[in-house]
Amino acid sequence: MLRVARELFHEHGYGGTTVRMIATAAEVDPAMVFYFLGTKQGLFSAAIEISGERLVRVLVENLDKSDRTPLMMLTRSAPTDSRAEALLREFIDREITGRLAALLDTPDAALRAGMVNVQILGLAVARYIMRIEPIASSSVDELVATFGPLVQHCLTGPAPRA
Fold this sequence. Notes:
- By secondary structure, this protein is mainly alpha-helical.
- It is built from 9 helices and no strands.
């Protein structure tokens, strides 16, 4: 079912693909799709293999092992320096929002990507800049368990209101 969903989403996009199309091509009852994945958005998320847990894990593991100095300096300076703010916004748009919205390929993809940004940027500021406890000393697994479901909700939860 997921293989067929991937093919149809790739061929027709999110808007041009229906659960009925996927179920028919996979030779399953449409009710089975809803039973296992809940919604079309849930099916889409499973098909493209985006998970909130994976996003949080990659973010924290990469920031934990990298030289965060340039990014942290930029983040600290953004509220008071318009050039730093513009550079940080460009980085976020290019590296996070644009890529995530393209993967989601839903009518509300930009809003969902923005909601994910709020979660992961808040986590990064709390852990690496403000050093807020217990976030700063939590293990990667603890942060994934806590923030992963929040990010997942942003990705695949009920359609947010604009």
